[in-house]
C-alpha cells in the first residue's frame, strides 16, 4: 500500500522539480543538464550524468557483520527473499517503511531515516537525493548481476552509466478489467473511452495520482505529452475527468489490486503491476483468467530503482543485496510476493509465462523492453505548471 | 481555635483567586505546548513559503513576514471555486450525521439515565465495548460487511434491500460518521441526563404537563448544556474526518474537506494549501466553540442567580 502511495505521489515529488521553459530550452543540448526548479534532472531528450562528489567503496571489501538497514515501501520486498539473504550473508536486515517519496526524502535530509539502502525511489526523487548529497556512487564490482538489467535501463536518462542506481521494478499505465464482464474488443478503437461508459457507474476506478490520471485523459484526447505545459490541454483533461466523474461516479484510489479480484470493480485505470498483485487477492475458486489488462500503445512506462546512501554503515552488504535482488531466481522469488515485474532482461515474458504464474489474460500487462522503450516518460513540472495540474485535479476530486 | 482557624483558611481560599488560578497552570501549559504552539506552527506553514528546490513547506515564524497570497486563493476557492462543493458537502454531511446521532443517541442516553436501573452499568459497557476496537479496524470490518457479497448486504437482501453500499454513496459515508462518533455523543449526554433533577419533570407532570410537554419544556432545556457539549464533541472530529470517506467511499462525489487536507499535505507539491485548509476549518469550528462557550456561560449565570 505504501509504495503505491509513492506511485500515487509520483507527481507530488515531481512538482518539486520541473519541466518548463528552461527544460525545453535545454532539450537536445547534451552539454548542459536540464535545470528545473533549481534541480538538475535528466529527461529522455537530455539524459544526465550525475556529478560524483565522493568515491565509491573500494573493491574486495569484506561484508560487514551486523545489521543492514533498508528503506522501502510496504510490501515491496519478499520476506522470504530477505530471509534467504540474511542466512546467506549472516546478517540481519531491518526495514523501515516510507509512505511518500517526498516524506522519505525530507526524513533522510533531517536524519530521521538513516538507512544503508533505499528501494523503490524514482527519477524525480533521485534529483533531490543528489541535490541533498545523500547518495554514494555504486561500485559495480560487487554487482555482477547488473548485466541482467534490461539493456535500455543500464544507462537510464536519469542516471547515465547507472552511477548511483540499479533498476528494481518496471510498470506501465493501462486499464485493468474483469474479463468475465467486459470483452477485450471493448478496447478495440479508443480503449480509454471505456472509462467514460456510464454502464460501469459505481464499478469503475481510476488512479489516485494526478499526473497519471490527468495524463490518461490527455492521451484519450490525442495529446501524448505527459508533461505538457499547455494550460488549454490541462484544462481539457480536467473537463474530461469531470465528465468521467459525472458518467461513472468513479473510485479514486490505488486499490485496484484488491477491488478487482474481489469483484467490486469491473474496470480500473491502474498500473500494470497491480494486476499481478491482484492474483493473490482472488477469492478461492475464482479463475485468474477473470483479470485482464489493456496496455495502450502509447502510455506512461516507468521504473524505480535501488540506491545506497552516503552515510551507509554497511555499504558492502547494501551492494550485496542489490546484486542479490538482481539475480534472476531471486528476482523471480521477490516478484512472487510483490507482484510487480523485475527490471531484468533475463526475466522475459516467455520465462514468466512458463513459470505458470501469469494467466494468459494478463500477458498483455507484462512490460517488455520494447514496451518500456516506447513508453512515455513523466518528468517533473515547473511549480507554476504543476499548480495548473493540481487545480484541475482538485476540480475533479472535489466533486 | 481549630474551628476558627479552619474557617479563616476557607475564607482565605475563597478570596484567593490567584491560588485557584494557579491550579489552572498545568492545564494551561499543556494546552500551550500541545495546542497553541502546534497551531501557530500550522499558521506559520500556511503563511510561509515553499523551498524552491525541495518543495517542502518552509514555515515563516515571524508573523510580520507572513504571505497571504496563497491564503487568498484558497479562501476564494472555498467560497466560489473548486473547493466550494467540498465545503458545502462537508457541512451537509456533518449536519446530517449529527442529526442522526441525536435522533439515535438521545433516546439511548435518556433510557440509560432514567430507566436502565440495575442494568445501567452493563448497558453502558455494552455500548462502549465495540469502541475499544480501533476506529480504522471497525471501518475496515464494515467494508467487508458492506461489500457486494458481504454479510450485511446479503442480510438486507432478505428484506428486499439490494443496495451497493460501497459504490461511493453519501448515505454510507454519513452512516459511517454516525457509527464512528455516536458513543462520543451518548456518553456526555448520559452524564448530563443522569445529573438532572427529575423532580422538576415530575413537578411539571403534577402541574398538568403531558409527557411530551414535560420533555420539551423541562427535560430538553435542562439538558441543553449536555446536548451542546455532545454536539461539539462529535462535530469537531467529523468536520476534519477523512478516513471514513477514504474507507467507505473513495469517490469524488463524497469528498470532504479532510480529504483535501490529506491530499495537499501528504500528496501534493502544495503542502501550504493543506495548512491553509486546516486554518479555514479551524475558523469555522471556532463559531461552534463560541456558541458552546456562550451557551455554557449563560447557563452558569442562570445557576448563580
Task: Describe how the helices and strands are arranged.
The complex is a heterodimer of chains A (399) and B (305).
Chain A: H1 2-8, H2 10-16, H3 21-26, E1 34-36, E2 39-41, E3 66-72, H4 79-89, E4 91-97, H5 101-109, E5 117-121, H6 123-131, E6 165-178, E7 204-207, H7 210-220, H8 231-248, E8 251-253, H9 256-262, E9 267-271, H10 272-278, E10 291-294, E11 301-308, H11 315-325, H12 328-338, E12 341-342, H13 349-354, H14 369-374, H15 383-397
Helix pairs in contact in A: 7-8, 8-15, 9-10
Chain B: H1 2-14, H2 17-23, H3 25-46, E1 49-50, E2 57-58, H4 69-80, H5 84-114, H6 120-128, H7 135-146, H8 151-157, H9 170-194, H10 198-206, H11 211-222, H12 224-240, H13 243-248, H14 257-267, H15 271-304
Antiparallel strand pairs in B: 1-2
Helix pairs in contact in B: 3-15, 4-5, 4-15, 5-9, 5-12, 9-12, 10-11, 12-15, 14-15
How would you describe the overall organization of this protein?
- The complex is a heterodimer of chains A (399) and B (305).
- With 399 residues, chain A is α/β, with parallel strands linked by helices.
- Chain A folds into 2 domains: 2-170 and 302-355 and 365-374, Periplasmic binding protein-like II (D-Maltodextrin-Binding Protein, domain 2); 171-300 and 384-397, Periplasmic binding protein-like II (D-Maltodextrin-Binding Protein, domain 2, 3-Layer(aba) Sandwich), CATH 3.40.190.
- Chain A is 35% helix and 16% strand.
- In chain A, helix 7 packs across helix 8, helix 8 packs parallel to helix 15 and helix 9 crosses helix 10 (272-278).
- The two termini of chain A are 25 Å apart.
- Chain B has 15 helices and 2 strands.
- The longest helix of chain B has 34 residues, at 271-304.
- Chain B starts with a helix and ends with a helix.
- The mean pLDDT of chain B is 88.
- Chain A binds chain B through residues 5, 8-9, 11-17, 37-39, 99-100, 102-103, 105-106, 109, 128, 131-132, 201-203, 208, 210, 245, 249-253, 255, 262-264, 383, 386-387, 390-391, 394-399, and chain B through 50, 52-56, 77, 82-83, 85-86, 89, 147-149, 164, 166-168, 246, 249-255, 259-260, 263, 266-270.
Amino acid at each position: 500500500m505504501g509504495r503505491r502511495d509513492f506511485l500515487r505521489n509520483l507527481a507530488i515529488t515531481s512538482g518539486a522539480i520541473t519541466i518548463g521553459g528552461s527544460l525545453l530550452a535545454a532539450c537536445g543540448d547534451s552539454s548542459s543538464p536540464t535545470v528545473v526548479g533549481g534541480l538538475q534532472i535528466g529527461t529522455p531528450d537530455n539524459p544526465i550524468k550525475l556529478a560524483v562528489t565522493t568515491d565509491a567503496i573500494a573493491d574486495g571489501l569484506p561484508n560487514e557483520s551486523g545489521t543492514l538497514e533498508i528503506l522501502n515501501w510496504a510490501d515491496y520486498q519478499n520476506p522470504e527473499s530477505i530471509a534467504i539473504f540474511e542466512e546467506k550473508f549472516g546478517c540481519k536486515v531491518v526495514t523501515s517503511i516510507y509512505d511518500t517519496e517526498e516524506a522519505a526524502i525530507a526524513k533522510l535530509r533531517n536524519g530521521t531515516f538513516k538507512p544503508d539502502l533505499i528501494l523503490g525511489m524514482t527519477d524525480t526523487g533521485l534529483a533531490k537525493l543528489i541535490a541533498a548529497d545523500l547518495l554514494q556512487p555504486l561500485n559495480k564490482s560487487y554487482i555482477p548481476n547488473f548485466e541482467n538489467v534490461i539493456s535500455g535501463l543500464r544507462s537510464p536518462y536519469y542516471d547515465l552509466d547507472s552511477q548511483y542506481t540499479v533498476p528494481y521494478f518496471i510498470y506501465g499505465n493501462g486499464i485493468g478489467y474483469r474479463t468475465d464482464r467486459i470483452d477485450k474488443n471493448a478496447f478495440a478503437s479508443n480503449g480509454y473511452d471505456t472509462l467514460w461508459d456510464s454502464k460501469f457507474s459505481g464499478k469503475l476506478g481510476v488512479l489516485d495520482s494526478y499526473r497519471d490520471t490527468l495524463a490518461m485523459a490527455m492521451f484519450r484526447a490525442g495529446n501524448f505529452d505527459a508533461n505538457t505545459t499547455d494550460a488549454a490541454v490541462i484544462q481539457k483533461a480536467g473537463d474530461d475527468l469531470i465528465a468521467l466523474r459525472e458518467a461513472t461516479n468513479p473510485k479514486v484510489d490505488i486499490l485496484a489490486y484488491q477491488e478487482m479480484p474481489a469483484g467490486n470493480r469491473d474496470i480500473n485505470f491502474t498500473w500494470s503491476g497491480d494486476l499481478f498483485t491482484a492474483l493473490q487477492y482472488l477469492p478461492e475458486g475464482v479463475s485468474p483468467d477473470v483479470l485482464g489488462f489493456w496496455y495502450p500503445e502509447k502510455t506512461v512506462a516507468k521504473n524505480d530503482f535501488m540506491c545506497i546512501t552516503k552515510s551507509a554503515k554497511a555499504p558492502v552488504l547494501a551492494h550485496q543485496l542489490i546484486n542479490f535482488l538482481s539475480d534472476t531466481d531471486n528476482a523471480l522469488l521477490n516478484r512472487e510476493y510483490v507482484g510487480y515485474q523485475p527490471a531484468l532482461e533475463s526475466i522475459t515474458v516467455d520465462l514468466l509465462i512458463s513459470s505458470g504464474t501469469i494467466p494468459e489474460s494478463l500477458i498483455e500487462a507484462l512490460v517488455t523492453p520494447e514496451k518500456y522503450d516506447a513508453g512515455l516518460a513523466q518528468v517533473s513540472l515547473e511549480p507554476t505548471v504543476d499548480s495548473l495540474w493540481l487545480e484541475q485535479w482538485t476540480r475533479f476530486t472535489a466533486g | 481555635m481549630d474551628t476558627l482557624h479552619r474557617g479563616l483558611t476557607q475564607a482565605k481560599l475563597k478570596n484567593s483567586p490567584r491560588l485557584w488560578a494557579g491550579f489552572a497552570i498545568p492545564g494551561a501549559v499543556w494546552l500551550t505546548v500541545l495546542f497553541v504552539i502546534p497551531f501557530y506552527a500550522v499558521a506559520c506553514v500556511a503563511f510561509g513559503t515553499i523551498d524552491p528546490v525541495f518543495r517542502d513547506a518552509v514555515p515563516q515564524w515571524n508573523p510580520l513576514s507572513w504571505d497571504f497570497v496563497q491564503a487568498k486563493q484558497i479562501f476564494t476557492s472555498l467560497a466560489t471555486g473548486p473547493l466550494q462543493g467540498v465545503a458545502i458537502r462537508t457541512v451537509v454531511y456533518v449536519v446530517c450525521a449529527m442529526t442522526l446521532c441525536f435522533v439515535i443517541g438521545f433516546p439511548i442516553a435518556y433510557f440509560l439515565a432514567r430507566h436502565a436501573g440495575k442494568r445501567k452499568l452493563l448497558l453502558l459497557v455494552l455500548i462502549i465495548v465495540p469502541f475499544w476496537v480501533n476506529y480504522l479496524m471497525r471501518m475496515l470490518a464494515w467494508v467487508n460487511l458492506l461489500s457486494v457479497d458481504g454479510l450485511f448486504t446479503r442480510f438486507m437482501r432478505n428484506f428486499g434491500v439490494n443496495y451497493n453500499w460501497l459504490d461511493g454513496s453519501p448515505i454510507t459515508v454519513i452512516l459511517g460518521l454516525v457509527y464512528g462518533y455516536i458513543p462520543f455523543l451518548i456518553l456526555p449526554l448520559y452524564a448530563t441526563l443522569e445529573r438532572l433533577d427529575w423532580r422538576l419533570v415530575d413537578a411539571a407532570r403534577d402541574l398538568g404537563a403531558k409527557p411530551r410537554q414535560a420533555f420539551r419544556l423541562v427535560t430538553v432545556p435542562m439538558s441543553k448544556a449536555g446536548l451542546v457539549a455532545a454536539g461539539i464533541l462529535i462535530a469537531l472530529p467529523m468536520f476534519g474526518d477523512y478516513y471514513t470517506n477514504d474507507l467507505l467511499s473513495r469517490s469524488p462525489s463524497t469528498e470532504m474537506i479532510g480529504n483535501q487536507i490529506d491530499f495537499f499535505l501528504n500528496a501534493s507539491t502544495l503542502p501550504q494549501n493543506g495548512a491553509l485548509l486546516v486554518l479555514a476549518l479551524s475558523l469555522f469550528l471556532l463559531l461552534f466553540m463560541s456558541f458552546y462557550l456562550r451557551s455554557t456561560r449563560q447557563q452558569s449565570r442562570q445557576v448563580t442567580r
